Amino acid sequence: ADITVAALPMDEKRATAFGLMKIDEEGRIIEFAEKPKGEQLKAMMVDTTILGLDDVRAKEMPYIASMGIYVFSKDVMLQLLREQFPEANDFGSEVIPGATSIGKRVQAYLYDGYWEDIGTIAAFYNANLGITKKPIPDFSFYDRFAPIYTQPRHLPPSKVLDADVTDSVIGEGCVIKNCKINHSVVG
Questions:
Q1: Residue 156 gets which letter from DSSP?
Q2: CB under 8 Å to 45, separation ≥6 — which residues?
Q3: What gap in Å lies between CA 20 and CA 100, rounded to an integer?
Q4: Where are the bilayer-spanning segments (predicted)?
Q5: I want to staple 63 with a disulfide (CB 3.0 to 4.6 A). Which of 10, 28, 39, 43 is the partner?
Q6: End-to-end CA separation in angstroms for the chain
């Protein structure tokens, strides 16, 4: 592929906030619309059973949305930005649809695991609180089959003194004293 776009199934309620695509049987993107509304949104509806979703889930998630993660061939990217779209300011609304329209091989990488768009403060907040949900959090940092690697912080362990902490995640280097913390992410 000249460009690979990470994509996932999406429900109608959130679809207008994303670039949506139609793909062929090989996963090649044949149409791309950035944040469509109204009739343009309806036109981007697809049968997502092609992604491996069962009939019930496919009805709930009838769109294929871009995750905003792109992998370009270096030569193709330079050619697109220097020659085809030198005035472009956005990959999702200009470069990706343009590359599709001029025949570049733009491929979808289909992902159906946990992912959240944290482009707004509310979305970032909700994604963080999602790790405190009971009985099963939206995302687990403790899955031994999918470890999370981060930069070392070189902070001391957190200290909790005379505090009540429930359903929360406390990052390293925190001092929690004389308080109650519930359903929170601190760090």
A1: P
A2: 62, 63
A3: 13
A4: none
A5: 10
A6: 40
* Distances, alpha carbon 49 to alpha carbons 54, 56, 77, 161, in Å: 6, 9, 32, 52
Q: What's the CA gap between 163 and 161, in Å, rounded? A: 5
Residue 56 DSSP symbol:
H
Beta-bridge partners for 8: 65
Token pair, residue 15, equals 């679809």
What residues contact residue 130 under an 8 Å CB cut-off, 6+ apart?
116, 137, 138, 139
Distance CA 23, CA 77 (A): 21
Task: Please state the φ and ψ torsions of residue 185, each to the nearest 5 degrees.
Answer: -120, 120
Give CA–CA dist 93/85, Å, rounded.
Answer: 12
Kindly tell me the burial class for residue 99, based on how many C-beta atoms sit within 10 Å of its own C-beta (0-12, 13-18, 19 or more). Answer: buried
Per-residue pLDDT of 79-113, as tens digits, reads: 999 999 999 999 988 999 999 999 999 999 998 78
pTM value is 0.79
